[in-house]
């Protein structure tokens, strides 16, 4: 079927530009260009080759590093090598370090923490005999690798032992333990225990986590200088490694076979598979992203290190975990660059006063446009003010830059002439240079065909320089602005206008010009960069880093602000009829137009198809059956064409969405109106996603015959919103969300004159669970209780919150107090029925205490009072022996 009628010029240009700009953004994702060689990167491993480093192997195996522009080499570990030492000495770009890297960073060593492969450490100690108390380890010989988890544990031993523990350097040979050359041997739970069982060697495990000692492990680190100078490479390395871990956890067998084939491994295939199975629990925790580094957890580790004498109080006080965790938007300025900014709090910027949408100065002297938005972000991050020039013309801007009066050009092509007096960053915008002429003009395949013709060009711009240099046989007509150049074509003062597609698009839409179209593509792009004066060399690296710190989302937001596809949303009935009539006319003309026009039409269709692909487009008939779908939509919903074509649109609406609302929306579309909104969809593979949709009716002879639907995938945006209101560990709503909803829910109950029920429950003796079994076990207990509560309190109006530590809140509207208390009592029994051991509790199992408040009618809303009542009732339940419910009926 035909995808769309021939659009008016402003729509055509808008679509073309959208595709081209999106392509330029995608091209910027790699740290190197497609035509460049891969960037060589080395990673020093901290141990022998095994599944412990599966994320790195998988990223190599699957080509994730190469796709990111990286050629990664994994450096084998040898006895005596510390990965962090190799990074600090700059013999390796990255290193896989133990949790002791936190101590190194707190001591001021220039290390940046990139990601953590293991969310908590699998490190344990192997012993030949069971250990019942730490005094048994007096004078024991310990072989370990400098991991802070083991160091902290040894400190605890030395605090109670008669003789200090003797520490031996690691050899990497498990036989040292088997031969009893050492009493304690540091090992990974994922590795050595399996090997010892295979050999039939008796051993016992001592897990520091059982003593409340927690830490990350296998932290990828890099030198601060490397992060400062190559932040894009570091970010690419992190993202590719995370992808590698995702693949490795899903395809352990494939990765194990790859390791065995490509690396020297001192264990068999079965041992690697067993290690892979154990590794999953340390890499991916529920609701915690792979590779995550939490500043609070790192600060807690630093505090523990200070308490055991590994760092001083002053070092702890000076330590800022946020600053040692690598973030791609951090600037990592050198001392020289920081000094320059202190000495130059105001930086003068050369701005074209009339070059919409890139930049312009309004009547009040304010700087606007794409470049202004970029510089606003960069100014905030650098802590400086970018002051735009007051030059009246672009030629004057260039003269000021050449004289040194202007320090920066905000948006310019790095032409050979300008490079004589300016340095340039990498391009941050890229657009094609095209020819625009009247609609009667045929497509210009070769610019040599323009010999003797007059082409309007912006005066002093690179377009003029390029055209006069490469095609001297063409007569150029310098004009003051894009708008003047387009009018020159319409008034037949020039055959065509040559310029930037984005500027042309903006001017045509703003002026409402008709009768023009793109008739030629130079094959050359305007690669727009930031220029800096060669008299201040530090400024180039500063601007490059500031530019790199602007992420893809921010770039997209700037783009959308200046180039929104508003035509479909704002087109009324009459306009659409005109478009249809124009399409019919064009279809007739196509019967006799020349081959040249056919070529141009083919290019236009290609652009339209590409924009449909970018927007996950579908076309449905008036009955709601899908008649056409883009390939990108197929990928979004994970379907084959046969699963989509002919299906009703509702098939892809998530079952939790209101079907009646969708029917009303579709009925509105059939009346000739447009609709925009956010909906939750579901695919053939069961995967759900969130999309912002725009539905636009298609008319034929004034009647709606179908609907075009375009989409923007906003799943990540919705997930970020969920992160803000959800507790990371349990997935329940957090205290922030309770604070947001508490008062509105009370008001709702008051308005509806309906009951209001609220309960607060708390895990009894929870601290003893942490102390006795370790914080990891404590976290697992919290997850189990939250899961049980979610399954039990599952009515439509039940809302659960984790408000801190082991405290939870339930809000509902039960029909009676007795029903409410009965439901709570059953929950209390179910918790005890989990039989989760808590030896330090008088009940010997985990229990909960509950404070409950039931209101038949909310007469006076007082959020603070209501919350204080349930808090008091919970405290009273604890005072009465715990594992019980204390309730009141008031309000």
Quick synopsis:
By secondary structure, the chain is α/β, with parallel strands linked by helices. It has 35 helices and 32 strands.
Notes on the structure:
With 891 residues, this protein is α/β, with parallel strands linked by helices. The chain has four domains: 1-29 and 342-614, Periplasmic binding protein-like II (D-Maltodextrin-Binding Protein, domain 2, 3-Layer(aba) Sandwich), CATH 3.40.190; 39-119 and 216-324, 3-Layer(aba) Sandwich (D-Maltodextrin-Binding Protein, domain 2), CATH 3.40.190; 123-211, Periplasmic binding protein-like II (D-Maltodextrin-Binding Protein, domain 2), CATH 3.40.190; 726-889, Reverse transcriptase/Diguanylate cyclase domain (Alpha-Beta Plaits, 2-Layer Sandwich). It is built from 35 helices and 32 strands. Strands 11, 15, 16, 17, 18, 19, 20, 21 and 22 form a nine-stranded mixed β-sheet that branches. The protein has a five-stranded mixed β-sheet with strand order 2-1-3-10-4. Strand 23 (618-621) and strand 24 form a beta hairpin. Helix 11 crosses helix 12 (269-283). The radius of gyration is 33 Å and the shape is globular.
CATH architecture of the largest domain: 3-Layer(aba) Sandwich
Helix-residue proportion = 40-55%
Terminus-to-terminus distance: 65 Å
The domain count comes to 4
Number of helical elements: 35
Sheet having the most strands: 9 strands, mixed
Query: CATH superfamily of the largest domain, please?
Result: Periplasmic binding protein-like II
CATH class of the largest domain: Alpha Beta
Q: What is the mean predicted local confidence, pLDDT?
A: 81
Bulk shape: globular
Q: The CATH topology of the largest domain is what?
A: D-Maltodextrin-Binding Protein, domain 2
C-alpha Rg, in Å? Answer: 33 Å
From the helix content, strand content and strand pairing, which structural class follows? alpha/beta
Stretches where pLDDT is under 50 for at least 5 consecutive residues are: 1-36, 564-608
* Structure summary, number of beta strands: 32
How much of the sequence lies in strands comes to: 15-25%
């Amino acid at each position: 079927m035909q995808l769309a009628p021939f659009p008016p010029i402003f729509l055509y240009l808008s679509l073309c530009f959208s595709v081209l700009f999106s392509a330029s953004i995608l091209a910027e994702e790699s740290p190197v260009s497609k035509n460049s060689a891969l960037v060589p990167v080395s990673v020093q491993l901290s141990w022998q080759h095994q599944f412990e480093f599966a994320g790195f192997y998988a990223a190599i195996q699957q080509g994730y590093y190469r796709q990111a522009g990286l050629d990664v080499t994994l450096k084998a570990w040898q006895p005596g090598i510390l990965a962090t030492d190799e990074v600090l000495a700059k013999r390796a770009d990255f290193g896989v370090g133990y949790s002791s890297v936190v101590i190194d960073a707190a001591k001021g060593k220039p290390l940046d923490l990139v990601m953590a492969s293991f969310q908590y450490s699998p490190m344990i100690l192997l012993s030949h005999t069971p250990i019942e108390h730490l005094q048994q380890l007096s004078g024991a010989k310990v072989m370990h690798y400098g991991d802070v988890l083991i160091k902290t544990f040894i400190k605890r031993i030395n605090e109670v032992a008669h003789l200090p523990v003797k520490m031996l350097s690691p050899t990497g040979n498990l036989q040292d333990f088997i031969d009893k050359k050492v009493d304690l041997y540091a090992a990974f739970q994922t590795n050595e225990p399996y090997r010892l069982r295979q050999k039939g060697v008796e051993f016992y495990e001592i897990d520091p986590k059982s003593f409340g000692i927690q830490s990350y492990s296998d932290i990828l680190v890099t030198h601060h200088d490397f992060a400062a100078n190559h932040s894009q490479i570091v970010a690419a390395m992190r993202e590719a490694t995370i992808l590698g871990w995702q693949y490795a956890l899903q395809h352990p067998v494939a990765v194990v076979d790859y390791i065995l084939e490509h690396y020297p491994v001192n264990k068999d295939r079965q041992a690697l598979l067993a290690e892979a199975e154990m590794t999953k629990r340390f890499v991916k925790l529920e609701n915690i992203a792979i590779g995550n580094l939490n500043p609070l957890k790192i600060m807690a580790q630093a505090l523990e290190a200070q308490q055991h004498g590994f760092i001083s109080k002053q070092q702890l006080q000076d330590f800022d975990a946020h600053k040692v965790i690598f973030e791609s938007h951090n600037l990592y300025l050198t001392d020289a660059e920081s000094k320059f900014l202190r000495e130059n709090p105001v930086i003068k910027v050369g701005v074209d006063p009339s070059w919409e949408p890139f930049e312009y100065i309004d009547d009040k002297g304010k700087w606007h446009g794409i470049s202004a938005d970029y510089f606003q972000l960069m100014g905030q991050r650098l802590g400086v003010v970018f002051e735009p020039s007051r030059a009246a013309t672009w030629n004057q801007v260039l003269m000021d830059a050449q004289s040194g009066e202007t320090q920066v050009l905000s948006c310019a092509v790095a032409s050979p002439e300008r490079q004589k007096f300016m340095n340039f960053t990498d391009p941050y915008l890229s657009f094609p240079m095209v020819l625009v002429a009247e609609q009667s003009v045929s497509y210009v395949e070769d610019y040599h065909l323009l010999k003797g013709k007059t082409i309007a060009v912006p005066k002093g711009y690179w377009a003029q320089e390029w055209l006069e240099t490469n095609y001297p046989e063409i007569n150029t007509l310098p004009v003051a602005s894009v708008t003047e150049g387009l009018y020159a074509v319409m008034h037949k003062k020039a055959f065509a206008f040559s310029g930037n597609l984005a500027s042309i698009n903006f001017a045509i839409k703003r002026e409402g010009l008709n009768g023009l179209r793109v008739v030629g593509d130079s094959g050359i792009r305007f690669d727009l960069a930031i220029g800096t004066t060669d008299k201040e060399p530090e400024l180039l690296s500063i601007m490059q880093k500031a530019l790199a710190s602007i992420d893809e989302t921010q770039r997209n937001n700037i783009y959308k602000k200046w180039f929104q596809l508003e035509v479909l949303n704002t087109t009324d009935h009459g306009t659409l009829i005109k478009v249809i009539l124009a399409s019919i006319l064009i279809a007739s003309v196509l019967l006799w137009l020349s081959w040249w026009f056919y070529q141009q039409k083919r290019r236009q269709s290609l652009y339209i198809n590409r924009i449909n692909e970018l927007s996950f487009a579908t076309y449905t008939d008036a009955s709601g059956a899908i008649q056409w779908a883009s390939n990108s939509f197929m990928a979004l919903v994970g379907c084959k064409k046969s699963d989509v074509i002919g299906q009703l649109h509702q098939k892809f609406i998530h079952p939790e969405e209101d079907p009646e609302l969708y029917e009303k929306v579709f009925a509105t579309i059939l009346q000739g109106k447009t609709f925009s909104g956010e909906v939750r969809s579901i695919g053939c593979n069961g995967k759900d996603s969130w999309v912002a949709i725009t539905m636009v009716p298609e008319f034929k002879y004034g009647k709606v015959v179908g609907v075009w639907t375009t989409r923007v995938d906003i799943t990540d945006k919705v997930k970020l919103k969920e992160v803000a209101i959800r507790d990371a560990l349990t997935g329940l709503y957090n205290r922030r969300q309770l604070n947001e909803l508490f008062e509105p829910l009370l008001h709702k109950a008051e308005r509806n004159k309906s009951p209001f029920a609220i309960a607060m429950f708390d895990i009894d003796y929870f601290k003893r669970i942490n102390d006795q079994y370790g914080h990891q076990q404590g976290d697992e207990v919290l997850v189990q209780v939250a899961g049980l509560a979610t399954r039990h309190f599952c009515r439509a109006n039940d809302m659960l919150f984790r408000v801190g530590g082991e405290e939870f809140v339930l809000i509902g509207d039960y029909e009676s107090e007795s029903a409410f208390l009965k439901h709570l009592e059953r929950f209390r029994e179910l918790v005890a029925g989990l039989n989760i051991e808590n030896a330090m509790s008088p009940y010997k199992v985990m229990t909960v205490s509950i404070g409950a408040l039931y209101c038949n009618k909310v007469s006076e809303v007082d959020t603070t009072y209501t919350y204080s009542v349930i808090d008091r009732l919970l405290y009273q339940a604890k005072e009465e022996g715990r594992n019980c419910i204390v309730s009141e009926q008031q309000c």
